[in-house]
């Protein structure tokens, strides 16, 4: 199925986090680098939650389809 809002926001947070992490590393800014790592990790969690939620929704639809037959 198509990615849901949580999956898309998670991907966006991952990209933002990786960007901050890279800039922090380039500028030798440990705080910015750590913030980027945390944002990336949060994006991974959010994307995973979105994928799980989508799969549960798809499974419920499949059950509904099977019952209506």
Summarize the helices and strands and which ones pair or pack.
Elements: H1 5-26, H2 30-68
Helix pairs in contact: 1-2
Q: Which short descriptors sum up this protein?
A:
single chain; 69 residues; mainly alpha; 2 helices; 88% helix
Q: Please compute the radius of gyration using only Cα atoms.
A: 17 Å
Proportion of residues in helical segments: over 70%
Structural class: mainly alpha
Beta-strand percentage range: under 5%
pLDDT < 50 stretches: none
N-C termini distance: 22 Å
What is the makeup of the main sheet? none
Query: Order of SSEs, N→C?
Result: HH
> Average pLDDT across residues?
95
User: What's the shape?
Assistant: rod-shaped
Number of helix segments?
A: 2
What is the strand tally?
0
Can you walk through the features of this model?
The mean pLDDT is 95. The protein is an all-alpha fold. It has helices at residues 5-26, 30-68. It is 88% helix and 0% strand. It is rod-shaped, with a radius of gyration of 17 Å. The protein is built from 2 helices and no strands.
Give a summary of the structure in a few sentences:
The chain is mostly helical. 88% of the residues lie in helices and 0% in strands.
């Amino acid at each position: 199925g198509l990615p849901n809002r949580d999956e898309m926001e998670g991907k966006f947070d991952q990209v933002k986090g990786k960007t901050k992490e890279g800039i922090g590393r380039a500028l030798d800014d440990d705080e910015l680098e750590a913030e980027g790592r945390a944002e990336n990790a949060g994006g991974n969690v959010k994307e995973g939650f979105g994928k799980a939620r989508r799969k549960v929704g798809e499974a419920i639809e499949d059950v509904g389809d099977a019952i209506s037959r």
